[in-house]
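Box 3.1 A note on notation
Throughout this textbook, protein chains are presented in two layers. The first layer is the amino acid sequence; the second is a token string describing backbone geometry. Keep the layers aligned when reading.
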Amino acid sequence: MSIRSKLLAALIGASFASSALASVTYSTGLDANHDGKDDQFTVNGATAYLVTSTAAGWPVLPNSAITSGKYISWDPVQSGRNANTLKDQTYKYAFQFNWSGAALTTGLDFRWVSDDYLTDILLNGVSLGVNNLGASEVWKISNSASVTGQVVGGLNTLQFVVNNTGGGATGLAADFTVNGDATLVHVPEPGSFMLVGLGLALIPALRKRSTAK
């Protein structure tokens, strides 16, 4: 392989990929462009909104003692008449993540509050056996669970299933961590492209040095 090919391969490899032990935490309520919509979650296949008007009794979130997530729901207003529009329904809060490694069983850690009961968490349609059906005041008290689940290479889907048994306000706030070996693929920063350009610019000088020897 020529000097140019070796240097280019090394620079691009360093810019795009590295192997690491993945322990990545996600949470509800991420809204980078401040449009009031969750950047990562949907609810029943539609937009999940950050709750701006909370129902009576809901804690102020995020709260590191409860969850680092914020409340999300089908409507940003979860107090007053708006909260009563949809009653007695099941809400599926869905989140997708990419697993770049091979399929394997890995650990998942959850913390959440919900209104009403979180009846299950599904990973790629398979129950993880997580719920808070026995808890009281589920919209106030933080729940946690550590389980294992089968991830697949490529796109994975987590669904938090919340049953709004009594009607009225409903929402979910959660954070969770996905653990396991993975290959992390990075989008190169502008500086990475500059680095590649600098490397290519140095090739003539390297050739001259090699010839002089």
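The two ends are 19 Å apart (CA to CA). DSSP finds two helices and eleven strands in the chain.
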